[in-house]
Amino acid sequence: MKHDMPQPGPERTQVNQTVPRLEIRNLSRAFGGQVVVDHVSLKVMPGQVTCLLGPSGCGKSTTLRMIAGVEMQDSGEIFVDGQLICDTVFRVPPERRHIGLMFQDFALFPHLSVGDNVAFGLKGPADRKRARVEELLDKVGLRRFIDEYPYQLSGGEQQRVALARALAPKPRIMLMDEPFSGLDNRLRDDIRDETLEVLKAEDAAVLLVTHEPEEAMRMADEIALMRNGKIVQQGAPYNVYNAPVDRQAVAFFSDINVIRGKVQGALTDTPFGQFLAPGVPDGAEVDIVIRPQHIKLDLDRGGRGPNPTVQDGVAARGEVVRARFMGAESLVEIRMDYDGSVLKATVPNVFLPSLGKPLWLMIRRDRCFVFPAAGA
Ligand SMILES: Nc1ncnc2c1ncn2[C@@H]1O[C@H](COP(=O)(O)OP(=O)(O)OP(=O)(O)O)[C@@H](O)[C@H]1O
């Protein structure tokens, strides 16, 4: 098959808000018979940041490398602005894809000034190049360093120069692979916010790879949650966090508590009251999954707890087996009277109960997820 089509180029770019800037369809790749990317499909619109989020080794970087063109897929297609740039036969070479790259080891050229680093990928008359370099250094707040050398800059400043360098040729797509992982925590938050602002202003479509849920939540318009080479869920951070597809998806974002129950008549009884389990056959087990911040604690009043409510259901009693002060909150672990299991609750830091103290737990029913029991 021969594809005869014009090559993509920035000068031909027309922003079309209905055609994805980047689209991959059914991208797959195996190494030595082991499938590491398995029919991955996603779309990124201009000006949108999508985070490919997943544990180490799930195939995120391989997906990014195929889009960049430095790795070939075994099957599937890649489109930019609706035009095919790569399938298993046709392939636009990496340098003609107009894709900006920013990786963790973003190394600037040490022998070039900051200005020359940013100008590196630019073509055209010197005054136009200079204007673009100044514009970008302004955006990242580093214009004053234009004639300095990388070694004179802090890690965070170097990161911002790397961002300016990647954006200088006005890439239509930016691929970022764990770009902030070399920075310390406080600095990282600032750089993330600044980077986001610059990326939005440049209107590139951004695909950012990370294994950190906080980073994805902070940066992404859309999260694509990846596991074992597949995208298991995709959506706005709010939806992925609040309507997870399975127990593992909940656990990827936070600690979890699991209460197992047996289903009878689409309901399951628990010490916290009944839960709906629609579509689950009688006798099957379900896991009721709840995050520690959605467990409420109440004091024991001579062996009695709070009255049941519609929102929080019935209270169940337990005893504190561990309480740790975490700064903004305390993590309290409670051994439950009903089966000896230990549930975790996080509460604002003013509350730090002593060991052995009896407490009553209530769970936010609207924040519980009911899934078929894992391994059942
Ligand atoms: N060139 C290669 N040859 C053989 N195996 C590879 C190659 N590249 C990646 N792999 C394997 O493919 C799997 C996915 O790797 P990949 O780097 O895409 O994962 P990742 O999700 O980006 O992980 P990390 O966050 O640790 O970088 C891993 O098991 C890795 O060892």
Notable traits:
2 domains; alpha+beta; binds adenosine-5'-triphosphate; 376 residues; Rossmann fold; 8 helices; five-stranded antiparallel beta sheet; OB fold (Dihydrolipoamide Acetyltransferase, E2P)
Structural summary, described in words:
The chain has 376 residues and is an alpha+beta fold. It folds into two domains: 10-98 and 171-251, 3-Layer(aba) Sandwich (Rossmann fold); 255-372, Beta Barrel (OB fold (Dihydrolipoamide Acetyltransferase, E2P)), CATH 2.40.50.140. 21% of the residues lie in helices and 34% in strands. The chain is built from eight helices and 20 strands. It has helices at residues 60-68, 114-119, 126-139, 155-167, 185-202, 213-219, 237-242, 247-253, and strands at 22-31, 34-44, 49-53, 75-80, 83-86, 99-103, 173-177, 205-210, 222-227, 230-235, 257-264, 267-270, 273-276, 285-290, 295-299, 316-325, 329-336, 342-348, 358-363, 369-372. Adenosine-5'-triphosphate is lined by residues 31, 36, 54, 56-62, 211.
